[in-house]
Amino acid sequence: MWGDSLLIVFISICTAFLGEGLTWILVYRTEKYQKLKVEVDRQSKKLEKRKEAHGDSLDKQHKKKIEREEERLKNNNRDLSLVKMKSMFAIGFAFTALLSMFNSIFDGRVVAKLPFHPISWIQGLSHRNLPGEDYTDCSFIFLYILCTMSIRQNIQKLLGFAPSRAASKQGGALFAAPATQFK
């Protein structure tokens, strides 16, 4: 069981590096992505400085300028996401093939023992294709997903591919909360 668990962590690390490598080839090294990233970082810092400089005492003219800059930043973030999305389909297809291959290798094998009983709607994933009723037994897919979720973000930070803090702070993400500071 320990050997399988360590192998799954190793597989997760390798697939994260493979994914980031493919993303670098298809996205990060392109001129369009690099220009958009620089523009988003520049606009984020400029907008943050402008908000800090004026604080809450804004007249209508400053509010309009900030709203226009926020709109430009949102548009650039959207364009950046579109550039990334094209390659994500290719990477998603490759990882689906890899996942099905590894899933067939580890099918029906307990790869880890969970220190808790998962909640009912996660049990189907954590106990997938495992015999018995011991829900602390962990399947390949559950451990792989947990490892990949934690490892991939750290590898992105390590390689410098994670979004800048200024851009993240300004939002522009798909599920970001709306900015209501100036309304």
From TrEMBL:
Got a GO cellular component term for this one? endoplasmic reticulum membrane
Keyword entries, A-Z: Calcium, Calcium channel, Calcium transport, Coiled coil, Endoplasmic reticulum, Ion channel, Ion transport, Membrane, Transmembrane, Transmembrane helix, Transport
Localisation per UniProt entry: Endoplasmic reticulum membrane
Q: What is its main location?
A: endoplasmic reticulum
Q: How does it sit in the membrane?
A: Multi-pass membrane protein
Q: Which residues form a coiled coil?
A: 33-86
* Membrane-spanning ranges: 6-27, 88-106
An example of a Gene Ontology BP annotation on this entry?
Answer: endoplasmic reticulum calcium ion homeostasis
Q: Is Endoplasmic reticulum found in the keyword set?
A: yes
Q: Which InterPro entries match?
A: EMC3/TMCO1 (IPR002809), TMCO1 (IPR008559)
Highest taxon, organism lineage: Eukaryota
- What's one GO MF term for it? calcium channel activity
Q: Does the keyword Membrane apply?
A: yes
**Biological role:** Calcium-selective channel required to prevent calcium stores from overfilling.
Describe the family membership recorded for this protein in Swiss-Prot or TrEMBL.
Belongs to the TMCO1 family.
Q: What is the protein name stated in its UniProt record? A: Calcium load-activated calcium channel
Instruction: Give the originating organism.
Output: Parnassius apollo (Apollo butterfly)
Q: What is the lineage of its organism?
A: Eukaryota, Metazoa, Ecdysozoa, Arthropoda, Hexapoda
